[in-house]
Amino acid sequence: MKFSSNIAAGLGSVKSLGEYFEDLKLSRKALIISGEKSYQVAGEMVSKSLQGSNIQTEEFIGKFEPTRETAEKFISKLLKYKGTETAIVAIGGGSVADICKYVAKELNLDLVVIPTLLASDAIATGYSVLWEKGKNQAIQTKTPSLIVGDYEILRNQPKRFVSAGAGDMLSKISALYDWRLAFWLGNESYNDFAMNVAKSTTELLEKRILDVSKMNYIGIETLFLAEVTDGYLMELSGSTRVAAGSEHLFAFAMETLDLNGIHGEYCALGTILMSYLQSRDKMDTREYLQAVGVPTTASELDIKPYSIVKALTMAHKMRPWYTILGQNGLSEGSAERLARYTHVIS
Fold this sequence. Notes:
Strands 1-8-5-4-2-3 form a 6-stranded parallel sheet. A two-stranded antiparallel ribbon has the order 6-7. α6 (159-170) packs across α10 (217-237), α8 packs antiparallel against α10 and α14 (305-314) crosses α15 (332-341). It contains 15 helices and 8 strands. It has 346 residues and is of the alpha/beta class.
C-alpha cells in the first residue's frame, strides 16, 4: 500500500518548504490558507520559503469556522484556480486542516499541512469533522500530500493545546478496546496490525508523558509523530475506529453542547469515564492525563455537572458505532452515577 503523506520534521523545517515542493514535484503555485494568529507564527516564513523557490503564492487569511458551509464557500472562491496546477498550504490547527482537506478533495488539489498547534490528530488524517445543521460529521476527505512539523514553532504553542493533543492521543486507551468490541459484537471492520501499532504509539506516549508536558524536543516530536501516525493507521485500516471510540462519542456530544473545553480535553474526560465502564479504571489513565496537564474533572473546565450527564446520555447517538455504550446508551441516573464514581463530577 502506498500512503499519501510525506513528512518533513525538525527544527526550522518550514524554512525548507520550497525545497520540499521541488523534491515532491508539487505545483509552482500555492494557496496559503491560515488563521490570523497562525499566520503571525508561521506565515511569513512559509511565504518567504516558497517565493525563494520561485513558487507563486496567494493568501487567504481570516477566521475559519469548521463547517461544511465555510468549506463550500472556499471552494467557490478557489474554482477560478481549477484549471491550473495548484497546491493548498494549510497553516494552523485542526479546524483549518479539516476545511482544507475537504477543499483539496473536492477540487483534487495537493495539500500541504503546517501545524502550529498539536491539539488533535486532524492535522494528519484523511477525514474532516465539519459542522452542518447543528451536528458535527466525519467526512472522508484527503490525506495531506505533505505534513511539515517545525518543532521550533510547535514548542512555542500554548501549553493547553499540547495537553489537549495528548488527551486526544491517550484516548486510544478506551478506543482500541471499543474497536475490538465492535469487531466481535458489532460486525465492524478491524485490522489487527493497525491495532497493535496504535497500541505501541500510545505506550510510547505514556512513557514520554513528562517530556510532552515539558514541551521539550523529545516531547513535541513524540506527540507530533503520534498524531501523524494516526493518519497512516486510518488509511491502513480504512476506519477512524483505530483512534476513536466511546470517549470520542462523549467528546462529540460535549461539543454539541457548546461548552468551555476543546476536543482533546473532552476526549480525556471521556477516556476516564469509558475506561471505568470497560472495567479498566485500575489503569493509570488519570495519572497520565494529570501529568500532561489536561483537566480530569468538569470543574477544572468550569463545566456544570448536568452538562457531563447530558453528554453521556447523548453520546451513543453521535455516530453509528458499536461501543461499550451499547445501542441504547446510558440513562440519566446511570450517567450521573458513572460521572460521580469516576470523580469527573463531585
